[in-house]
Design a protein that fits this description.
The complex is a heterodimer. By secondary structure, chain A is of the alpha+beta class. Chain A has helices spanning 3-14, 20-32, 34-73, 85-135, 137-151, 317-329, 349-357, and strands at 162-173, 177-180, 189-193, 199-208, 213-218, 232-233, 243-248, 255-263, 273-277, 288-291, 295-303, 310-315, 360-367. The radius of gyration of chain A is 43 Å and the shape is elongated. The relative contact order of chain B is 0.08. Chain B is mainly alpha-helical. In chain B, 76% of the residues lie in helices and 0% in strands. Chain B has helices at 2-15, 19-39, 44-63, 73-92, 109-132, 136-145, 150-157, 162-187. Classes of the chains: A alpha+beta, B mainly alpha. At the A-B interface, helix 1 and helix 3 of A face helix 2, helix 3, helix 5 and helix 8 of B.
């Protein structure tokens, strides 16, 4: 008996397709030959396996079919992939009336709401202006500049120029050298205004956009050199939590702000600057950041837009580096002497402020046409 | 009581691969599972795979004679799907925040283990079938899975008579058995 014949016999034996006589003969054969017996057992197991495999395949197939069928009928939804054109038409027909009613209700509501809005709008408007004012500070400042143009007829701003940018700055040398931020000076020349409203012409000496620092020199016969500066420029790093204060010109009048040193690094870990907690507004840029000992520890430069009170100041060490670099290239700057002693140390804050305020200037940069 | 009988009838239908029953269970449960998978970092395809896997597990369970479902079909299917999907997420290294931890579930670990063992066996058979090549694969599929008669198969494959087809079928079957058992025994 060859293998195929044997296999055929085993299968019909297992499936019960044999006649009783054949079964009896086959049973006898199984008893006699253990190999055949073994084969029968093996095949029975295989057949069982095959049956469940078949059932598995069939149920898988049915599930697949069902899934597709339900998708087509719209009972299942796989993210809009089912919306065929026919369905859209059907939906339209079904919901035509509902849609019409909804649309008219929507129209009525829209009219009512717009009526209500119109009725109440004067009240609402006041609020909106206040909210917006934060966003349009720059525009407002421009308006202020225009206002000052009209008010101060004898302004030193040349005729026919527009002020491009502005900020604060402070003296670092008694002879009229002012440090400010590079981004404050977008124009080609500048005037500076002291806290009493007096204007001086100033020339831009040098700009370092990397450090975000710039130096101006007051070139004006009205300017009288000071005997000494009340503050010193700090050389060492400030400590976390140091109480700090600043003076600057977010408006046309000098504004005082107080806060503390929040981090020894600036935005995104920038090691050139500090993070400080202080209320700063556009216009404060370039203002000095002083500690209680009257040391300038930094130059207020930027603030984080989304966070309240988070501002950044360029470290004062950079001023030294900046000046050193300039000295090596420009001999005219060799005689700049940075103040080393703070004579406002230990006196009351109010007195400190009044002394420092004399050295903080409102910087307005413009470009000649 | 009526609902319970209804569920039993559905399971019986599922065990017999009755399309009406499958459709009903599918319709009643799929959206829930889809929502769960989609809410937990999955796609539409993932949802379908997980759900169908759970249906197969339920089908296997329903087939055994001693089977009694001690909870609602919905709860059972959800439990299996939840288990399957969280496991898959873990394998992919993605984790869900498991927001809906408070849903009612039943322990399904044991059932799943059995199911996965069977899946492994089927995978062996699948591989054996695939490495068989044509026409053996189609011939055996026709006979054992689609349950076609020998006469029918002979006609479809172009054998001159059923006996020849049968002969060929046995030859293929022997090869399949060899392939299957070589894998199966390693698997053991």
């Amino acid at each position: 008996m060859d293998d195929i014949q044997l296999l055929a016999n085993i299968e019909s034996y297992l499936n019960g397709e044999m006649t009783p006589v054949e079964v009896a003969i086959f049973d006898a054969l199984r008893k006699k030959t253990p190999e055949i017996d073994q084969m029968v057992v093996e095949h029975s197991m295989f057949q069982h396996q095959m049956d469940s495999y078949a059932a598995y395949q069939n149920i898988k197939h049915s599930l697949h079919e069902t899934h597709n069928k339900l998708l087509e009928s719209g009972d299942l939804n796989e993210g809009g992939a089912v919306s065929t054109k026919v369905q859209v038409v059907q939906l339209w027909n079904r919901y035509k009336r509902v849609t019409a009613i909804a649309a008219s209700v929507g129209g009525v509501i829209a009219l009512v709401i717009s009526g209500l809005v119109a009725y109440f709008s004067p009240v609402v408007n006041g609020n909106q202006i206040q909210q917006l004012s934060k966003d349009i500070e720059i525009i407002k400042r421009n308006q202020q500049y225009q206002g000052s143009l009209i008010n101060e007829v004898k302004s030193k701003i040349p005729m026919g120029v527009t002020i491009i940018s502005g900020g604060s700055g402070f003296l670092i040398d008694t002879k009229g050298y002012i440090i400010t931020n590079a981004h404050v000076l977008k124009g080609t020349a500048a005037i500076v205004v002291d806290n009493k409203g007096k204007e001086y012409n100033a020339a831009i000496v040098h700009i370092d956009t990397k450090k975000d620092l710039a130096i101006l020199k007051i070139n004006d016969e009205d300017f009288k050199p000071l005997k000494s500066l009340p503050y010193s420029i700090g050389k060492s790093n400030a400590d976390l939590g140091d109480e700090i204060f600043t003076l600057g010109y977010p408006r046309n009048d000098i504004v005082y702000g107080v806060g503390y040193l929040a981090s020894k690094t600036g935005y995104n870990g920038d090691s050139l600057s500090y993070q400080i907690q202080i209320s700063a507004n556009p216009g404060n840029s370039g203002g000095p950041v002083l500690n209680t000992n009257g040391e300038v520890i930094g130059v207020l430069s930027t603030r984080q837009a989304q966070a309240d009170g988070v501002a950044f100041a360029v470290k004062s060490k950079n001023i030294y580096q900046f000046i050193d670099e300039l000295r090596s290239t420009d001999t005219a700057l060799e005689h700049i002497k940075l103040p080393m002693h703070a004579n406002i140390k230990g006196i009351q804050r109010k007195q400190q402020i009044s002394k420092v305020a004399d050295c903080v200037f409102n910087v307005k940069a413009f470009s000649k046409k | 009581m009526k609902a319970e009988q209804n569920e039993q009838a559905l399971l019986k239908g599922l065990a017999n691969n009755d399309s009406k029953a499958i459709e009903t269970i599918y319709k009643d449960n799929f959206n829930m599972v889809q929502a769960f998978v989609l809410n937990n970092n999955g796609s539409y395809d993932d949802a379908r795979d997980v759900f169908q896997e759970a249906m197969i597990a339920l089908y296997e369970k329903a087939q055994s004679e001693s089977f009694v479902l001690t909870c609602q079909i919905k709860t059972y299917v959800y439990s299996i799907c939840r288990r399957l999907w969280l496991k898959k997420l873990q394998q992919m290294g993605r984790f869900s925040n498991q927001v809906d931890n408070l849903d009612e579930t039943v322990p399904v670990e044991e059932d799943l283990e059995i199911h996965q063992k069977r899946n492994a066996e089927f995978a062996i058979m699948d591989r054996a079938m695939k490495s068989l090549g044509e026409p053996c694969k189609s011939l055996l599929e026709g006979y054992y899975i689609k349950k076609m008669g020998m006469q029918e198969l002979a006609a479809e494959f172009g054998y001159t008579n059923a006996d020849n087809a049968k002969n060929q079928k046995y030859k293929c079957l022997m090869r399949l058995k060899k392939l299957f058992f070589s894998q199966y025994n390693i698997g053991e």
